[in-house]
Amino acid sequence: MAINYITQEGYNKIKKDLNYMIQVRRKEIARQLETARSHGDLKENAEYDAAKEAQAMNERRIAELTEKLTSSSIIKDGDIPEGKVFLGSIVTIKDLNSDEELQYQLVSEPEADILENKISIKSPVGKGLMGTEEGQEINIQVPAGTLKYKILKIER
């Protein structure tokens, strides 16, 4: 089993989601199943079928989150090299094509969420940013072409 490195914040979020699925969602679904059973014949009971499907999806999600936690190792601040973009770094970059400033946090795949500006270190942009230093100009090849960035600031 391959080890996935993850930030403490990402680990905590996955653990919180897992606890919710186990402690809250399982009970909600059990109540839905009980209510649906009380309506009689289960052969033509859409409410029962929907609750069973929700139960299966919840159990799959629990298995996925459990796997993520068991295969993850939390990266510590001391493991992050100073002055270089690394897992957990928050990097401010300037798009040299548009002059737009962007800020991303580099995270593991399970933590990636573009809506929160968290990009995976395995994505093309994440790979291109890894190991770079402040002031450095880089070109990153993506399916849409070449992105040209300047590293403005690196934070932990």
Report on this model:
The protein has three helices and seven strands, in the order βααββββαββ. The protein is an alpha/beta fold and 156 residues long. The chain has two domains: 4-74, Orthogonal Bundle (Helix Hairpins); 77-155, Roll (Chitinase A, domain 3), CATH 3.10.50.30. Strands 5-4-3-7-6 form a five-stranded mixed β-sheet. Helix 1 runs antiparallel to helix 2 (46-70). The longest helix is centred in the N-terminal third of the chain and has 30 residues, at 8-37. 19% of the residues are buried. The model has no long low-confidence stretch (mean pLDDT 90).
Sequence of strands across the biggest β-sheet: 5-4-3-7-6
Named at the architecture level, the CATH assignment of the largest domain is Roll
DSSP summary: helix tally:
3
**Low-pLDDT windows of residues:** none
Q: Any idea of the CATH topology of the largest domain?
A: Chitinase A, domain 3
Q: What is the CATH homologous superfamily assignment of the largest domain?
A: Transcription elongation factor, GreA/GreB, C-terminal domain
Number of domains: 2
Describe, in short, the structure shown.
With 156 residues, the protein is α/β, with parallel strands linked by helices.
